[in-house]
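Re: export button greyed out
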Amino acid sequence: MEKFTTHTGIGVPLRQSNVDTDQIIPAVYLKRITRTGFEDALFSAWRKDPAFILNQAPFNAGSVLVAGPDFGTGSSREHAVWALKDYGFKTVLSSRFADIFRGNSGKQGLLAAELAQDDIELIWKALENAPGTEVTVDLVSKTVICGNVVAPFSIDDYTRWRLLEGFDDIGLTLQHEEDITTYEATRPAFKPKTLPARLS
Amino acid sequence: MANTLAEKVWDAHVVRKGDGDGANAQPDLLYIDLHLVHEVTSPQAFEGLRLAGRKLRRPDLTIATEDHNTPTLDIDKPIADLTSRTQIQTLRNNCQEFGVRLHSLGDAEQGIVHVVGPQLGLTQPGMTVVCGDSHTSTHGAFGALAMGIGTSEVEHVMATQTLSLKPFKTMAINVEGTLRPGVTAKDIILAVIAKIGTGGGQGYVLEYRGSAIRALSMEARMTICNMSIEAGARAGLVAPDETTYAYMKGRPHAPEGADWDAAVAYWSTLRSDDDAVFDAQVDLNADTLEPFVTWGTNPGQGVPLSDKVPSPNDFGDENAKAAAERALQYMGLEAGTRMKDIRVDTVFLGSCTNSRIEDLRAAADIIRGREKDPKVRMLVVPGSARVRLEAEAEGLDRVFKDFGAEWRFAGCSMCLGMNPDQLEPGERCASTSNRNFEGRQGKGGRTHLVSPVVAAATAVRGTLSSPSDLDPAPESAALQTTDAA
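Workaround output, generated via the alternate export path:
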């Protein structure tokens, strides 16, 4: 995974709450078997509307999405994170993220930064008053800077550390493979196994 | 120390405690007892294993089924949609390469992954269950800690049979009292979500408790736990009891003999201690609950069926007001309209929320001897091939067909429309599924989430209806249908 320390790019104000992952990427795009190439799928239903923010310059070149509360609710599809990344977003700011989306972001190097809703409102205003304004998201100091707005954000320490170092989760876990083997030896006999298959 | 059920299951699966305390705590490494796999969220995970030269650690704790893409008609023919066909073929190839048990389309155990696991007896109390699907919370009905994961985590579980997780907070959802006739588990969970909102359960594991929950069947408990994610909670559970054991007993993968006794002895310890402390509590009165229905585009936008479409001005919060305005526009609804005056085009009975045999029986009981509104299309999609067979053995397929409904093969179907079962733009649907998001059931489709009995009553009247709105069924017609079955 690529390391993330700080990013500066055009901010995109998405003034909407409850942006579910079906909106971020509709199910029809989930039939693909690749992990990349989802840029066309991002917000595809909404992008048919010429008034949608990503259809307007300079927001179409944005890389910092500033969203309303409850971003990424619903389906667990990691494709939502892939689509945001493939489009060019490096980070999403919101006052509340759905748990699974937040987890998926952390695995893929997309920074999900949680800000106070009041700060989100200030950033929205700044971006709307001066479209094209750049937003800096600094993971080292956990700070967002947008024009005159300087706001702290929160992220759990473990995810922050992994993003800063660019660590691969499976590699980290396999360092403890002995612990896994030891645990497996203690599992009770009554716990089910899928193999050999028993049928009704 | 007193613990909640969720904490007990968690503690029993810690392979390695994370270093540090409090806010600085690293995640725990938890062992995963059962990994459920389907075609949509697994191809990139299998590919990741292949690229890294890693093995699937425990094929014997892994099971796959085809559900999201599968057609519900002509299942003996090649899948017409080429990308769907490729994705399913990819699952078949991967399962063969990595030694994973797979129930393919046409197999008697094929079906929605969250219907198949419990039905085979693979989901058991006290287990950790994961799947690359947010409705994995369903399995919490057995007192298992079950949660949806993303594809990176799917790959992690495949490679290590563990997950790195930070402890959740716990929330008790206390539902006391007795449900009135026509009010069901679906109405309980829709009311809970309307109460706490789509973000209310974020960071929590929900435990459903109280006399109304204890009185529910396993199918009904699965309906409730299934939609925990719609309240923002990654998992929801119910403590196992005699109802759970009775459901488990004799299932293909249920323990037998001495193992059964040992299992029950363990399962009976799986309840929150009397003095356990939850981080949050929510109370709901079952006595006064009415059938619930959604009016908007997220599952928290629901009201009692006897109520009206709310006005954006009813919401104090600016974001909620804007969301309501947008939802009303998308749904083509005007504030103040009586919910029962809303006419639907389609009724969908299915999905991992409400497609089990009990759901089909409940809907069949409503329509038996009645006539469908001729303008309404009704789709009945059993949750699994096994449920379909069971329903046919009971003659339920005849009841649905005589009524004029389409009797389909098993799968996720119109819940998310990855297969050809989709709504047309502007089409309005009363659906027993779990999400009323924009475009969820087809581009421009409008979804009202309802229970199976409300779905059935709606198919009769053509407008959103509860069973109590129906005229009595003609006695003779009811008898005829029974005879025919």
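Strands of chain A lie at 6-14, 64-67, 91-94, 111-114, 134-138, 143-146, 149-152. The button fix ships in the next patch.
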